[in-house]
Amino acid sequence: MSLQYLRIFNYIDAIARSGSIRKAAEALFITPSALDRRLQDLEDDLGAVLFERHARGMRPTAAGELFLKHARHQRADYERLRTDIGHLQGLHRGTVNIAASQALAFSLFPDVITQFRQGNPGINFSVRICDHTSVIQSLRDFEADLGLVYNVQPSADISPLLEVEQRLCAVMAESHPLAQQPDLRMRDCLRYPLALPDVSLGGRMLLDAFFARSSLSPNVVLESNSFEMLRNFVRGNDAVSFQIQVGTALARVQDGVTARHVDDRGLGSRPLTLAQLKGRHLPLPAMRFAQTLSEVLSEAE
Amino acid sequence: MSLQYLRIFNYIDAIARSGSIRKAAEALFITPSALDRRLQDLEDDLGAVLFERHARGMRPTAAGELFLKHARHQRADYERLRTDIGHLQGLHRGTVNIAASQALAFSLFPDVITQFRQGNPGINFSVRICDHTSVIQSLRDFEADLGLVYNVQPSADISPLLEVEQRLCAVMAESHPLAQQPDLRMRDCLRYPLALPDVSLGGRMLLDAFFARSSLSPNVVLESNSFEMLRNFVRGNDAVSFQIQVGTALARVQDGVTARHVDDRGLGSRPLTLAQLKGRHLPLPAMRFAQTLSEVLSEAE
DNA sequence: CCGAGCGTTGCCGAAAACGCAACGCTTCAT
DNA sequence: ATGAAGCGTTGCGTTTTCGGCAACGCTCGG
């Protein structure tokens, strides 16, 4: 697949990722000696040391960081060239690489990707679910074309493509008493035990801010960094969990779990942001998917 | 110097430039067969034909154009990486590649470059003098970091860094009667034979526009695409030539030739534009030189 | 109709990349 | 303290890639 012109870039990148020549060599299916020689040749040619040698392994120097950025950028650009040439020949194929926080894995992405692929078969997807900071880092490392994060702080090298305000939803079992009401207030929810996402997940910040200003005292019986776990938990009892809107599939019931808007004045809302690395030229499939995603998110509002 | 990772890029670029494998191979100091094989390997890997084969030579296909753009971009980026790493190590070296139209070769660049190198020894320059369209094309082909052109039409992929309005100057021999007057009107000049730049050079458009609206009839005894030639011509007789301001070294006399502002209401002015390719990340030396150039041009106003 | 110029191919030598085994070194646990 | 476990690195033989040489088939222009 990928040409050997960027072989050296993969080599160096592998060393940086694994932090050692031996591990990198193993991942690349070559011997450490060969890898070491390529690195030495490169350092000779550049006239600069790219890695600090420690007894434990390798750590990139400043020059190494520069080279790594170049290497990753170059690899991403080459991928774009390939898909662009493919488009030129009428075969609309390619891969869209997305990094997103966990809330979106459950319902949004499966649905939108299915919809997108109906209009664009031949486009494959690689979705990496991780926490907020990793999403932005994936963009910086050229591992992802698009990032979708909740409540992200603005950054100089990230350019937002779309922002959608996200209200909070309460998640509960289908048979839960609260499921009968169309709209909920927070004080209704607090009569039940709570299963909350922890701080690494979106929405928790909204809850904490609300509790801080409120006299209501929550009864938190479960805290987790897994939405999957929270959903499975509330299905079996009368506990209530919370999640941002797009992850919940509001109207319909799924696996015995449903969701309702929580409407409180004291409850703020934070934006869900679709973003890319500033200055990057995205592959055509990624741009199209960003367009589709924008439409879906806008009309869902 | 340059690593062999971008060897293939140079190969393909050479083919495109020379329009034939044999000529490209000669320029690369290899045999046509070797070059042909690299091209075939590349086309195999990309799954696309990059050149149309004609009996006379090779012409890039659409996919080939795409690849060429990528290749040139990649090469320029790699150069930037090298100079950036150099800066990291304290050795401030590198090359600034400039493309500019002819008017600027005479006095502006030699002076500014001399001044710049006093503050930044170790920075080398490559200045390519060519006509308007070639300047922009050089930016597009990543042959030049900066372009300086007179009266350029805006373009979507070019971003201007600075624009300075340029008035027209009359150029004449030191001993010319008009050289006694501090300010000239166009009708004064037209009493003498004229040596005009042709349409490929800046300023001619202003003159043509003026003559079209005026009842005055010019006596054009010489027309040339070389400012050098025009200057040398007017030195030996009473003819008058025209040039934009920055190229003339207004106050001082150089080689027996001097210049004066021409002040007419009917005479417009067009901007001299310093530009780069949009979205490009310029090497540090180029950015610094652009800064210096901006200051010089602004204060000269 | 022939020669000039082109891209292309088969075959062989040269050069670059790789694998293997071993060395010197630091770190950590016994 | 001391041996084991990692680590980067080196010498040397092997494999893969790349380039040179000569020749072929082709298209065009005189």
What is the CA-CA span between the terminal residues of chain A? 41 Å
Coarse structural class of chain A: alpha/beta
Number of helices of chain A: 10
Helix content of chain A: 40-55%
Major sheet characteristics of chain A: 5 strands, mixed
Descriptive report:
Two copies of one chain form a homodimer. In chain A, 41% of the residues lie in helices and 22% in strands. In chain A, strands 4-3-5-12-6 form a five-stranded mixed sheet, sandwiched between helices. The first copy, chain A, has a five-stranded mixed sheet with strand order 9-8-10-7-11, covered by helices on one side. By secondary structure, chain A is α/β, with parallel strands linked by helices. The A-B interface holds A 3, 5-6, 8-9, 42, 45-48, 62-63, 66-67, 70, 73-74, 77-78, 81-82, 84-86, 88-89, 279, 281 and B 3, 5-6, 8-9, 42, 45-48, 62-63, 66-67, 70, 73-74, 77-78, 81-82, 84-86, 88-89, 279, 281. Chain B binds a DNA duplex (30 and 30 nucleotides) through residues 4, 20-22, 30-38, 40, 53-58.
Blueprint of the fold:
Two copies of one chain form a homodimer.
Chain A: H1 7-18, H2 21-28, H3 32-46, E1 51-53, E2 58-60, H4 62-88, E3 94-100, H5 108-119, E4 123-129, H6 132-140, E5 146-150, E6 158-166, E7 168-173, H7 186-189, E8 194-197, H8 204-213, E9 220-224, H9 227-235, E10 240-244, E11 257-261, E12 270-277, H10 284-299
Parallel strand pairs in A: 3-4, 3-5, 8-9, 8-10
Antiparallel strand pairs in A: 1-2, 5-12, 6-12, 7-10, 7-11
Helix pairs in contact in A: 1-2, 1-4, 2-3
Chain B binds a DNA duplex (30 and 30 nucleotides) through residues 4, 20-22, 30-38, 40, 53-58.
